[in-house]
Amino acid sequence: LQLQASGGGLVQPGGSLRLSCAASGFNISSYTMSWFRQAPGKGPEWVSSSNADGGSTIYTDPVKDRFTISRDNAKNTLYLQMNSLKSEDTAVYYCTRQSNWGSRGQGTQVTVSS
Questions:
Q1: Could you report the per-residue pLDDT of 8-35, keeping only the tens digit for each?
Q2: Pairing mode, if any, of strands 17-24 and 67-72?
Q3: How far is residue 11's CA from residue 110's CA, in Å, rounded to a whole number?
Q4: String of b and e for 85-104 (b: at least 16 CB within 10 Å)?
């Protein structure tokens, strides 16, 4: 399987970004998919998960009401809409199959700074 995240960048506090994760080698429609992040010098942190049809989503408390996970199973792509970004959101973001950190592929850097 391959997972490639994209859409990161440098954004000011209060700004927004939309991350994408393109999957290949398997159909995301059969799996719960998740987003993790890893800040410099820290371990990985689970951020959010979406069940196979996208009808159920969960979030870690620090991002509730600011981040939205979604998916387009026809495009085999997972998304993370991030609004009201804070400096503490700065991290490399990865998508995973289910909540398996070992399945992550290339991440995307998100830097929130003025």
A1: 999 999 999 999 999 999 999 999 999 9
A2: unpaired
A3: 8
A4: beeebbbbbbbbbeeeeebb
